[in-house]
Amino acid sequence: MPFKRYVEVGRIALVNYGKDYGKLVVIVDVIDQNRALVDAPDMVRGQMNFKRLTLTDIKIDIKRVPNKKTLIAALEAADVKNKWESSSWGRKLIVQKKRASLNDFDRFKIMLAKIKKAGVVRQELAKLKKETTC
Amino acid sequence: MSYKFHQFQVVGRGLPTESDEHPKIYRMKLWATNEVRAKSKFWYFLRKLKKVKKSNGQMLAINEIFEKNPTTIKNYGIWLRYQSRTGYHNMYKEYRDTTLNGGIEQMYTEMASRHRVRHHCIQVIKTATIPAKLCKRESTKQFHNSKIKFPLVFKKVRPPTRKLKTTYKASRPNLFV
Questions:
Q1: Over the stretch A70-85, which tens digit does the pLDDT of each residue have?
Q2: Is B1 on the interface with A (CB under 8 A)?
Q3: Sheet with B122-130: strands ordered across
Q4: What is the DSSP letter of A19?
Q5: Do the Cβ atoms of B97 and A31 come within 8 Å?
Q6: pTM here?
Q7: CB–CB contacts below 8 A, A to B
Q8: Do B71 and A16 touch (CB under 8 A)?
Q9: Second label for B85, Cα 20 to 30 Å away, from A19, A97, B3, B68?
Q10: How confident is the model over A21-71, as pLDDT tens digits?
């Protein structure tokens, strides 16, 4: 099983610990074995330990340590935001966030929707059962 | 990023006397955890170089020096003199870091781990930002590659906050990426 996700200049990573939890950042340079220089459109370029990063499949084409303007342009060109939000990992994170931010009325609406869905599924199942037994 | 060791610029001179109205002013850049320690270190070193002590000298200025470009990676070379169990030795070490304070902190922790030298037995002689061509150590030179690429081999999944940490887990962790 060879490795598919490498630490390299331009790799997009998700921060999984610390102050910038949940952010997508670009690895802009490698400091040493444990740390990378990391940049994102809304943060100051800084160092981050690899233990705080989870690599994603997305990689953009940039040179080592680009300035902020070039970085934002490259992110737009590679359409990172849409790629991420349409990937299954990105979608799952969005759903998690939505669920965490529900208020009581939303949860009530979800309960009704779930009951409705379960009712429809049960009707179809009853129809199929009838067909097989008869 | 908070560093334990801060860099200070300390300026001092001997007190003016009748024979010497304007004594020479000396300036030193050194690392200490706080200003008080920095002043003390200054007098320690100055005593060894000139005939002046804290009691017959005066501190003129002490300023903290901050990193000019903390967002670029530099290779730092540090020359140091340390006391081991059997005597004094000189050493030259190289570190890759974004700030000089970070490099110095790496040096102190590495000396403590590799040579069991505590920080009060270490004297920093000189520091310099080394261009990539002149680096001597293989461990820093291996990162001088603009197309650097390596996989993260062991990936331990951590709880995202210390609050969600548990002592016992139901299953063994999967370390593959």
A1: 999 999 999 999 999 9
A2: yes
A3: B88-97, B74-83, B122-130
A4: T
A5: yes
A6: 0.85
A7: 63
A8: no
A9: B3
A10: 889 999 999 999 999 999 999 899 999 999 999 999 999 999 988 989 999
